[in-house]
Amino acid sequence: xxxxxxxxxxxxxxxxxxxxxxxxxxxxxxxxxxxxxxxxxxxxxxxxxxxxxxxxxxxxxxxxxxxxxxxxxxxxxxxxxxxxxxxxxxxxxxxxxxxxxxxxxxxxxxxxxxxxxxxxxxxxxxxxxxxxxxxxxxxxxxxxxxxxxxxxxxxxxxxxxxxxxxxxxxxxxxxxxxxxxxxxxxxxxxx
Length: 191
Description:
mainly beta, globular, 17 strands
């Protein structure tokens, strides 16, 4: 009798959540990502208010987490859709939003404040999907692309290895095609 009650409650919960997903398909659900430490020490801050702490290889990263690599450190973040970002030494990257919608769209929004990263974006993204990377002075929007970003206090440089990246800075958007480099941002050293 208890087993039947548990089974009925579980079926009811699954039915209600399934119906909700069908009725509200545009709603995004948070998705996790996995950290792979290749070399060195990686630190993670779970929330903007939190403190950085050493991260273990295989750590699960939730939206809002910031990953920081030290000297001689390399790490890879693998998102739920198969997209990856490889962080070079002395880089900071925040997983601003990592989600999927009921319609099957993938939404990944990242913020990189310093360092170098290599991105391989899954090519199976749907029309409503987006993969965006913001730096202090540029936003890169991509779909099914491979690209590298280098950020320092003065510039953001974007190099596309496959596909096209739309780079926006100062209200101007340019397309960066395969094997092209786009230096974006402003040289603040003379200001």
